[in-house]
């Protein structure tokens, strides 16, 4: 029996692990031809085994983005580009005073500028197909936790860019949707805590005194939460639905924490929101200590 969506392409960047891999797998099972962005041959073999087509895609490398556009333009079956899911990302967390500027720039290059470069290159295909852009933001794009300043900054910027883009291209028939995940069990989330502790070990004695306990408690809190966070497979299934539903909303949250925090951040005064996040942080830390 023919699969219903075999004549449509969907791109998922950052598809080697976590949310991206789960989304690519779900879309493939729905019958779409998924072009899954990976960076190594090993990752390509793994994603190929799920039925998706791997494409070499580091979104900070212009030649990779150009090659992706050529792949779409020269598709042997002339399939339309149904959706672009901008999922690639990195996370390096440390206090703003001590995080090196090169690591600030690295996060913005991947989490913001790389996505903009892909959008700029592929918008002509999406206009032609009246397709959809799905930008994977974060609850951190609405409420920034301590030591998450750089990562949250990239997501706040992606939120703003998505709003402008949506208002620019709606008249062209292109839809722009933002997905705001909270905690999701992924390799990136699990690894980020270790990276934060490594950076903290390199801080000066003064910075250790000022921020050492804060870093350790924040990592402990996040680690405790991730043990019961949303599985990547469930996150991928929802993103696949968002990417393909007929009439999507402008924004979706993923996970109970995002569903709780995002609306609060929009209605509570800033100082009260600070207290809410601090209380939540203490609760998670106390849970991890039991």
UniProtKB/TrEMBL annotation:
SUPFAM superfamilies: NAD(P)-binding Rossmann-fold domains. Pfam families: adh_short. It comes from the Bacteria. GO terms for biological process: steroid metabolic process. InterPro entries: NAD(P)-bd_dom_sf, SDR_fam. GO terms for molecular function: oxidoreductase activity. Gene3D superfamilies: NAD(P)-binding Rossmann-like Domain (3.40.50.720). Belongs to the short-chain dehydrogenases/reductases (SDR) family. This is SDR family NAD(P)-dependent oxidoreductase.
């Amino acid at each position: 029996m023919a699969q219903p969506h075999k004549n449509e392409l969907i791109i998922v960047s950052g598809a080697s692990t976590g949310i991206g891999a789960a989304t690519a797998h779900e879309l493939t099972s729905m019958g779409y031809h998924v072009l899954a962005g990976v960076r190594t041959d090993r990752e390509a073999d793994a994603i190929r085994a799920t039925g998706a087509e791997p494409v070499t895609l580091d979104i900070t490398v212009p030649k990779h983005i150009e090659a992706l556009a050529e792949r779409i333009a020269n598709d042997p079956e002339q399939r339309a580009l149904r959706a672009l899911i901008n999922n690639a990302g990195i996370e390096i967390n440390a206090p703003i005073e001590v995080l090196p500027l090169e690591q600030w720039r690295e996060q913005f290059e991947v989490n913001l500028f790389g996505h903009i470069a892909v959008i700029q290159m592929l918008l002509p295909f999406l206009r032609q197909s009246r397709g959809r852009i799905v930008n994977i933001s974060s609850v951190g794009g609405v409420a920034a936790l301590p030591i998450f300043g750089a990562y949250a900054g990239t997501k706040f910027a992606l939120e703003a860019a998505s709003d402008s883009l949506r208002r620019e291209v709606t008249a062209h028939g292109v839809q722009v949707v933002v997905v705001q995940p909270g905690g999701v069990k992924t390799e990136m989330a699990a690894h980020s805590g270790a990276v934060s502790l490594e950076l903290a070990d390199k801080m000066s004695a003064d910075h250790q005194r000022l921020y050492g306990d804060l870093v350790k408690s924040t990592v402990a809190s996040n680690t405790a939460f991730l043990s019961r966070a949303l599985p990547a497979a469930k996150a991928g299934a929802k993103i696949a639905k968002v990417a393909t539903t007929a009439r999507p909303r402008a924004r979706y949250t993923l996970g109970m924490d995002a569903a709780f925090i995002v609306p609060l951040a929009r209605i509570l005064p800033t100082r009260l929101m600070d207290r809410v996040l601090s209380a939540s942080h203490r609760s998670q830390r106390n849970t991890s200590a039991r």
